[in-house]
Amino acid sequence: MKTAAYYTLGCKLNFAETSTLARKLAEVGVERVEFQSAADLYVINSCSVTEHADRKCRKVVEEALQANPGAKVVVIGCYAQLKPEEIEQIPGVTKIIGAKEKFEVGHYTSILEESAGFRPKIERSPIKETRDFVSSFSFGDRTRTFLKVQDGCDYFCAFCTIPLARGRSRNPSIAEVLNQAKEAASQGVKELVLTGVNIGDFGKTTGEHFEDLVRQLDQLDLEVRFRISSIEPNLLTADLIEYLAQSQRFVPHFHLPLQSGSDAILERMRRRYRTELYAERVHLIKSRMPEACIGVDVIVGFPGETDGLFQDTQAFLHSLPVDYLHVFTYSERENTTAIRLDGKVPLAERKKRNRLLRQESEFMRNRFYSEQIGSLRSVLWEGSERDGSMLGYSENYVRVRAVYDPLYSHSLQQVRLVQIDPKTGHMDVEACHINQPKQTTE
Questions:
Q1: How far is CA 336 from the centre of its chain?
Q2: Is residue 105 helix, strand or coil?
Q3: Engineered SS bond to 191: which of 144, 249, 264, 285, CB 3.0-4.6 Å?
């Protein structure tokens, strides 16, 4: 039997797609093995959001060839779609597969029969020809499962290459998503994370709406909880927030991209909202779900971001009841609008601003965790042991730690949050506050 190993870079959507591809290849006799193993085939699902992701792809190719110098190496994903000629120059790459072709099993099985030593092949169609949607969900990779409900984007923000790498917004029908959710739940999954490029835009293909999808998932008779991944603030409607506030299955955790707290910069970024709308959404969430955790994406050093405009972002964040930040340092990407804008910020200043906001994020997270002390939460425990401990996430995204007990692996349990561990930053719980799990069958 031939073997394949997989490595995923980038977003939750990539994890869902890698897992689906691995299942497809397993069905035709290509067994999945760990990436550190000497596999016959290595598949690297790449990202190209930042320059760092491109460099990471090169490093992973090198790691694969160290494990098996004679292996075939395939690169798929956004980097493969955007810059296949660059990947051609990476020693050891066998094939480069674009967005439209990446789920076609024949592209992978054929190279397992080919001899080594030829020039890398490129299987890639223009992104405008990519209209199909392949349903995907991750399984076996992580405790949580990422369920792909949407792909592509029509927004064309000034800094972003994703529409060029993944094409236009498209989605399956609600009925297809429901079937995927049922299939994942039948395999013992306890949490499904809805993911995509712009999930709030769900319905472009089928004439349906994201809120309709949420309502129908919420009504499924499944022993799972649902989490919404990143969603644009202009697409998180007040009606949807009100519905989620009373849902028993959707957890109180939101990740809302902000990118800048300056309206002037938001306009230059070509974002589809301004700070007033963003603040309205955040305050509505907290008023209806005080226990909710809200995460924020921020880009620092965008062209034209002066010291004063960066300070506007800091002040805006201070004014909001948000709980952690994902901070990105702006990097120039080819074929984007931003690369042609004036007002370039020196790289050293970008990194300085990044550090400042990361410090702010730590303060926010610690404040939120402190507010949770003494509360009862539902935690999904992971299966692995780390230095005698097991880790998990509460419904409102608190990272939790307890003494390892295999009985609780991959189970949802009610716990009481006791204190913040000063070394790890995780929340500790006392074993006596963990309910005995129900007996389950694998």
A1: 22
A2: coil
A3: 144
Give the model confidence (pLDDT) of 328-339 as tens digits.
999 999 899 999
CATH T-level topology, domain 2-125: Rossmann fold (3.40.50)
Going by the DSSP 8-state scheme, the letter that residue 31 receives in this structure is E
The Cα 214–Cα 205 span in angstroms is: 17
Q: Is 215 helix (H, G, I), strand (E, B) or coil?
A: helix
Same fold, 2-125 and 145-369: no
Query: Is CATH 1.20.120 the classification given to domain 376-433?
Result: no
pTM of the model: 0.90
State pLDDT tens for residues 301-322. 999 999 999 999 999 999 999 9
For 158, residues 6+ apart whose C-beta sits below 8 A from its C-beta are: 268, 269, 270, 336, 337, 338, 341
357 Cβ partners below 8 Å, 6+ apart? Answer: 298, 300, 314, 317, 325, 327
Domain borders along the chain are 2-125, 145-369, 376-433
SS3 282: helix
Q: Do the beta carbons of residue 241 and residue 200 sit within 8 Å?
A: no
> Which is nearest to 9 in space by CA: 321, 248, 17?
17
**With contact defined as beta carbons under 8 Å apart, do 218 and 229 qualify?**
no
The residue assigned the tokens 């730690």 is 401
CB of 24 closer than 8 Å to CB of 135: no
